[in-house]
User: What shape does this take?
Amino acid sequence: MKKILVTGALGQIGSELTMHMRNIYGANNVVATDIRRIEGHETVESGPFEVLDVTNAKQMADLAKKYNVDSIIHLAALLSAVAEAKPVLAWEINMGGLFNALEVARELNTAFFTPSSIGAFGPGTPKIKTPQDTIQRPQTMYGVTKVSGELLCDYYFKKFGVDTRGVRFPGLISYTTPPGGGTTDYAVDIYYEALKSGKYTSFIGEGTYMDMMYMPDALNAIVTLMEADSSKLIHRNAFNITAMSFEPSQIAAEIKKHIPNFEMSYDVDPVRQAIANSWPDSIDDSAAKAEWGFNAKYDLASMTSDMLLKLREKLNIK
Ligand code: SER
Assistant: This one.
């Protein structure tokens, strides 16, 4: 990757990935785009930034040509709970945007990354050590767009030779930009509330296991996969990756080691609980490890220490 276009650059992944890649590839070589401009945001101020609606094919193609990009990181999408509330819009943005981005990649012959998700699995998928290649029959609009997206990316590789690559991200946890509208968001919210009020009410029920990952591992995964030797890749769209699997009481117990008076209660949201119940408990990421050397550094304990440290600074809590 030398000249990179990022869509959704002000979102949960994009805001940190843009800065991470600007450090590696040079600020001017990472063109950040988003549906809105936030004045003063470091992603907007630290290098090229353009407003882009990903459902506008011409606008996307024009920008890619203007900057002569050789790689596209397509992140703009709605998360699971929002997609469930607005399924038509989710199809338009998640699929329409992806199709437009793949067409630009085909025309300009760029490398291409887009994230899939544990949401690409469904109730019929084996829940424990979910294999790389397995049943994918999700029952949410988010999942439908993720499976369709994986297939479409494979199609562009086989039919047109576009160098498409992707990962199935688990819930991503970070202290920078909040996720907004996902099922795994509880595992981010809990840290904010633990510091602000010492208690948290979880919308996901006790005993509900899901895979999770700390953002630095997610950023490394994207760059490592995109720089991997193409001839080593047997799979492409998309690789299972994970760093940890836990349920709400386990993250609460970890936080209690730092904030002994922390208390958690439950008020389960039936919509997000149903989504969580349809996802794996823990996925098998051996293909990613074997084919491109994926390796997560953070586990629940080291992530919790770092999250609380960084959030204390951010929220100015002593
Ligand atoms: N974190 C995402 C969500 O909860 C899963 O891809 O929607």
Observations:
- The radius of gyration is 19 Å.
